[in-house]
Write a structure and sequence with these properties.
This protein is mainly α and 474 residues long. The chain has 18 helices and no strands. The chain is globular.
Length: 474
């Protein structure tokens, strides 16, 4: 989701490598798709899917199809705006062009806040994964350890950050592919589960597709959509393609690949273990593998999950720090936050991001049993609120500037953008059905209120007048 700036560095590294070989510095559509897949997959799926499976049962598979459709609509809208009018501020700039500076300001800060919450959910997931081996160590203590490690790596000012993240992206994709391969072997009887446990069975499907009713499916949608967080990265980087006409091909492949990887791997989880015993206490992948008598299989997979989640957390911290620098340069945050030290690290911006991380660790100490669900719900709502802004900006900008046959146009405009907004509204409404998710919903509303309040206070005291262009100048 979340690693827009990390992905940009990854693209830059790929380009530099191609230049050295005398090839085009632009990317093929499939390369950009793979970079996007790696940036999207994180603990939001590896652990968060446990919440959606437990709540929705088999209907979680339907949810991933709907979420994939919604994600494609968002990508398509952002891609059209990016190809027609490339802007370094991307969706923040488009929101400002469409609705004025207040919405552009809000979009940028919502994205940063969502990044903090995503980072918080990642560090909580890391602690939960580690409790497989250290069950008696408090969640908050493990979160502190991983937080210190992530801050330390970012303070080093790693030069080849994109290369490191690309390496871990391959691990994430390979992990899901390997799990699917294992699932095929299990379903075909090549590998059998422990006879003392419920192995491959129809237990998950015994009570139909909606065992917890439609409300169970509805409340799970926020976690399902959260798994697609970061899809906007492909729209931001669509101008890096060799041929702009390949934008829809790259986006379609990305969404289909994610949806297939997600849906098929969860299908095998449902076939390996009953959805009733799956929750956020442990990765559903580890629980599924634990039913097979292969020594250390679940442990090995847990190590892979930790490496994948940690890379996402480090990348998220790097990304939101860079976003804060961008906000500071645009005058939407204190100017001193953009200053960098001799290592090229914006210590002030990193420190502010670190404070957000520290607050999440504090809450993991105060609310150890519910913090992950709170953080995930809040992050999901903040993330898809920005998707609403992207889709709304698309509708408004198309009316303002029209469309051109020379550029990529999203299909079935404006139906797809309105439908995307409707699906997102449906998802957010579903978060009100569950007590813990309802808390996350109000937390996200609180953040939005704080962001709006900060803007209007800043405007009242003239903080933005000299820095930003007027709405007409965009």
């Amino acid at each position: 989701m979340h690693n827009q700036n990390v992905v940009k560095q990854s693209v830059k590294n790929v380009q530099q490598s191609k230049v050295k070989k005398g090839k085009s510095h632009k990317l093929a559509w499939w390369q950009l798709s793979l970079i996007g897949i790696g940036s999207v997959i994180g603990a939001g799926f590896f652990l968060g899917s446990g919440l959606s499976i437990h709540s929705a049962g088999p209907s979680v598979l339907i949810g991933y199809l709907l979420a994939g459709l919604t994600a494609y609509y968002v990508f398509s809208a952002l891609a059209e705006m990016t190809v027609q009018d490339p802007q370094p501020g991307s969706f923040r700039t488009y929101a400002g062009q469409a609705f004025g500076h207040p919405v552009g300001f809000m979009s940028g800060w919502i994205y940063w806040t969502a990044g903090v919450l995503i980072m918080s959910s990642e560090v909580t997931a890391l602690a939960i994964f580690t409790q497989l081996w250290l069950p008696h160590v408090p969640l908050w203590l493990l979160s502190v350890v991983y937080s210190i490690l992530a801050l330390g790596i970012n303070l080093l000012g790693v030069k080849n950050f994109g290369s490191i993240e690309s390496f871990f992206a391959v691990i994430k994709i390979s992990t899901l592919v390997a799990f699917i391969g294992f699932g095929i072997l299990a379903v075909t009887g090549v590998i059998s589960p422990d006879s003392a446990k419920a192995g491959l069975s129809s237990a998950s499907f015994a009570h139909g597709w909606f065992p917890n009713g439609f409300s169970g499916f509805w409340s799970a949608m926020i976690f399902i959509l959260f798994s697609y967080g970061g899809i906007e990265v492909l729209g931001v980087l669509s101008t890096e393609l060799r041929n702009k006409k390949d934008v829809p091909k790259a986006g379609t492949f990305l969404v289909i690949a994610l949806t297939v990887l997600y849906a098929v791997s969860i299908l095998f989880i449902l076939m390996m273990v009953s959805f009733h015993i799956i929750n956020e206490d442990k990765s559903p992948f580890v629980k599924a593998l634990a039913s097979f008598p292969i020594p250390y299989l679940d442990t090995i997979f847990n190590v892979i999950l930790i490496s994948a989640a940690f890379s996402t957390m480090v990348g998220a911290l790097f990304s939101i720090t860079s976003i804060m620098v961008s906000l500071a340069k645009d005058g939407d945050a204190p100017g001193r936050l953009q200053k960098k030290n001799s290592r090229g690290v914006a210590a002030g911006a990193l420190g502010l991001s670190g404070i957000g991380l520290a607050i999440s660790v504090l809450f993991s100490f105060l609310l150890p049993d519910t913090v992950y669900e709170y953080m995930t719900t809040s992050a999901g709502i903040m993330l898809i609120l920005n998707w609403v802004i992207i889709l709304s900006s698309h509708i408004k900008k198309r009316k303002q500037i029209g469309s051109s046959e020379e550029h990529y146009r999203s299909a079935s405009y404006p139906l797809t953008s309105y439908l995307g907004i409707a699906l997102i509204a449906f998802t957010i409404a579903g978060s009100l059905l569950h007590t813990n998710q309802r808390v996350g919903f109000f937390i996200s509303l609180g953040f939005v209120a704080i962001i709006l309040g900060a803007y209007y206070l800043g405007s009242r005291f003239g903080k933005f007048k000299k820095v930003h262009k007027s709405e007409e100048e965009y």
